[in-house]
Structures are given as structure tokens and as C-alpha cells.
Write a structure and sequence with these properties.
Distance between the termini: 14 Å
Shape: globular
Bound molecules: S-adenosylmethionine, 6-(5-methyl-2-OXO-imidazolidin-4-yl)-hexanoic acid, iron/sulfur cluster
Radius of gyration: 19 Å
Number of helices: 13
CATH architecture: Alpha-Beta Barrel
Length: about 350
């Protein structure tokens, strides 16, 4: 690694130890701070727990696209909206592995498999378990997002070697019913409990720009920060407006001030200091400067690769150039004896590409 490490790595970790007793008022007060003060505080917390030059890199693959019976108002994969997404069957393990090999060669450390299901059927679990086992055997961390899980399904995925399960609460519980009517937020919380009980890491966040108020953004982050355990990974998505979805029709993202998005990242960083905060969907429409502000505010993870699930992501060339211009480098993963991993596998390609661009 050529980059210089920060001079005070982890020095302030004790002063910024994770808390689970945040009050909603405290979270709202953080949102109300002057922007430079908020970013300063978030950057301090970030440095206490992480090297701010390191960004964890994940790649997403939709292993089963579209045709979903749910009514999430943001989602291009809901069958009931006419978004042009073609429904597919579950991919074969071999086809998934081919994509995982490509992601690894391009420098990803974690491979996330997504399926447009309300919840998997028990007969799907052995097929997904085979994908997980084989992707993990490539030396990648594994993540899946398959909808609601029973306790038994969570245990079966854990037994197959699944490291992370992504399941978002998406927004403030008070606003949830305006976005999703086919399930309740409690269903999401129940699945998260099954995932934790099975011993997997949780990846849980949501979407900004769905017409929620600042108070509701505070309520969303307050809910995450007062879960029995902070999610290990917190994806903050900016709504990608896909034609045919109810939210694209309402054009809710247009009402979101980009600085408000950065504030959301900064408050997430302060509330959940030891979690990875992922600058998730929506980067394709963001300027490099806005993304740089997000990294300054404490984001330390991205999706890398030209596609998210069904929508676009910045192409890898643009991301490599951004890493090089900002002096960022991909995080490495090492697995402790206790089974906890901190960062990613060796990703020669992305690190070397970013370095050669910086030279
Ligand atoms: N069906 C599963 C579920 O709902 O958990 C897994 C896939 S679902 C697409 C995963 C997450 O993607 C959602 O919870 C939501 O936060 C995010 N997402 C979906 N559509 C989005 C959009 N148009 N813009 C931003 N994020 C989106
Ligand atoms: C998450 O919070 N964002 C990712 C991942 N978890 C699965 C998905 C974003 C999807 C954006 C819309 C699409 O590409 O279909
Ligand atoms: Fe289905 Fe998940 Fe999309 Fe909701 S977010 S419609 S559950 S794929």
C-alpha cells in the first residue's frame, strides 16, 4: 500500500464508542448543526474507527430479477409497475460464479446477490446456498438480499457461509406505510432479528429522496441506531427514479437538497461510528464533488461495477479515476481467529489501477 496511514489511527475510538441510547431529539439536533460543524464531527468519528483513505468495495448481482409481488413505491422490480424490467428465473450457480470471478478480478472484496422476492421459498434455499458456498470459495465475502427470512432460512444461509444479509428498513417507521403497503416495518425488524440470531452480519439502511421530511430522515437513522445491534453495514441510497414507479411519477428526488443527502451520511456516521456506511444507489447521477463530500462525511463503502440490480452505477473507469484523484484505496479484508473480518481480500486490480492513475 503506497498511501500514508492517518497519524491517529483509532486513537479516539473509546471517546466515540458506539451508543444505543440515542434520543430522537439528539438525532434531530445533529441534522440541525451548521453543515461545516456536522462534517467536522462526522470526520472525527470516522477517523476514530477507520482509516478515512480506505473504502470497502462491493459488487452487486441480481440473481433473480423482477416479477416481485410487493408494492415498494420506489422499486423497478415490483411486478405491478410498468418499468420495462424483464422478470427472470433464478440464475444458475455457474452463471453467478462467472460474474463473481469477474467482480473479484475487477477488485471487489464482497459479492452481494439480490433476488426480487417477498421472501424465498424453502425450495429456493438449497440453490442459493450452493451459490453462497461457491462464491465464498473464490475468496470473496458473501452478502445476499432475498426478502423476508424465517429463522430456519437464516440459519441455513449462515451454514452455507453467508457473511452479510441485506434487509433495509428503508425509511422512518412513521413514513413506511406511505411507501410500502404489502408488509409492515415490523416484518423487516423480525427478519433482521432472525439474521442476527443466526450469527450473520446485518446490512441495513434505506433510501433518501422519497418525499420524507428531515424529521423523518432523523427518525429513519434513529431507528437504525437504536436496534439491538448497530447494522454492520448501513447502505444509504439516494432514490433512483425509475419511470413507471409511483415515486418517479411524483418526482420526489427533485425535492432533495444534495447537502441534505450528505447530512444523512454524516449523521449515520456519528450515530453508528463502527459501522461501514455505504454510499449506495444514486451515485451515477452524483457529481464527483458530491461523492467526495460524502466520503468526507464518513461514507466508507460503495458498490463498484457498472450495474446495481437493474439500474446503472458509475462505470469502473470513472470510479478508479475518482479513487485516484481523492487518494482513496480499497479496504482489505482479513478474517480474525474469532471469525470477524475487517475489510476485504487482496484486490490487486483496483488498487493498482487507482495507483497508476494517481502517478
Ligand atoms: N427484495 C428484497 C428486499 O426488498 O429486501 C431485496 C432486493 S431490494 C431491491 C433491496 C433494496 O434496494 C431495497 O430495500 C431498497 O432500499 C433498494 N432499492 C430498490 N429500488 C431502489 C431505487 N429505485 N432507488 C434506491 N434504492 C432502491
Ligand atoms: C441497498 O441498500 N442498495 C442496493 C443493495 N442494497 C441491494 C440495491 C440498490 C438497487 C437500486 C435499484 C436497482 O438497481 O434496481
Ligand atoms: Fe420486491 Fe424488494 Fe423491490 Fe420491494 S424492494 S418490490 S420486496 S424486490
Amino acid at each position: 500500500m503506497s498511501a500514508v496511514s492517518p497519524t491517529r489511527p483509532l486513537a479516539d475510538a473509546a471517546a466515540h464508542a458506539p451508543r444505543h441510547d440515542w434520543s430522537r431529539r439528539e438525532v434531530e439536533a445533529l441534522f440541525a448543526l451548521p453543515f461545516p460543524e456536522l462534517l467536522h464531527r462526522a470526520a472525527g468519528v470516522h477517523r476514530a474507527h477507520f482509516d478515512p483513505a480506505e473504502v470497502q468495495v462491493s459488487t452487486l448481482l441480481s440473481v433473480k430479477t423482477g416479477g416481485c409481488p410487493e408494492d415498494c413505491a420506489y422499486c423497478p422490480q415490483a411486478q405491478r409497475y410498468h418499468t420495462g424490467v424483464q422478470a427472470t428465473k433464478l440464475m444458475s450457480t455457474e452463471a453467478v460464479l462467472e460474474k463473481a470471478r469477474q467482480a473479484k478480478a475487477a477488485g471487489a472484496s464482497r459479492f452481494c446477490m439480490g433476488a426480487a422476492w417477498r421472501s424465498p421459498k424453502d425450495r429456493d434455499i438449497p440453490k442459493v446456498a450452493a451459490m453462497i458456498r461457491e462464491v465464498k470459495a473464490l475468496g470473496l465475502e458473501t452478502c445476499a438480499t432475498l426478502g423476508m427470512l424465517s429463522g430456519g432460512q437464516a440459519q441455513a444461509l449462515k451454514a452455507a457461509g453467508l457473511d452479510y444479509y441485506n434487509h433495509n428498513i428503508d425509511t422512518d417507521p412513521e413514513f413506511y406505510g406511505s411507501i410500502v403497503r404489502t408488509r409492515e416495518i415490523q416484518d423487516r425488524l423480525d427478519t433482521l432479528a432472525h439474521v442476527r440470531d443466526a450469527g450473520m452480519k446485518t446490512c441495513c439502511g434505506g433510501i433518501v429522496g422519497m418525499g420524507e421530511s428531515r424529521r423523518q430522515r432523523a427518525g429513519f437513522l434513529h431507528t437504525l441506531a437504536t436496534l439491538p445491534a448497530h447494522p454492520d453495514s448501513v447502505p444509504i441510497n439516494r432514490l433512483v427514479q425509475v419511470e413507471g414507479t409511483p415515486l418517479a411519477e411524483k418526482n420526489t428526488a427533485a425535492g432533495l437538497d444534495p447537502f441534505e443527502f450528505v447530512r444523512t451520511i454524516a449523521v449515520a456516521r456519528i450515530l453508528m461510528p463502527a459501522s461501514m456506511v455505504r454510499l449506495s444507489a444514486g451515485r451515477e447521477e452524483m457529481s464527483d464533488e458530491l461523492q467526495a463530500l460524502c466520503f468526507l462525511a464518513g461514507a466508507n463503502s460503495i458498490f463498484y461495477g457498472e450495474k446495481l440490480l437493474t439500474t446503472g452505477n458509475p462505470d469502473t473507469e470513472r470510479d478508479l479515476a475518482l479513487f485516484a484523484r481523492l487518494g482513496l484505496r480499497p479496504m482489505q479484508v482479513t478474517v480474525d481467529a474469532d471469525g470477524h473480518d475487517h475489510g476485504g481480500t487482496v484486490h490487486a486490480d483496483i488498487a493498482e489501477c487507482a495507483r497508476s492513475r494517481a502517478a
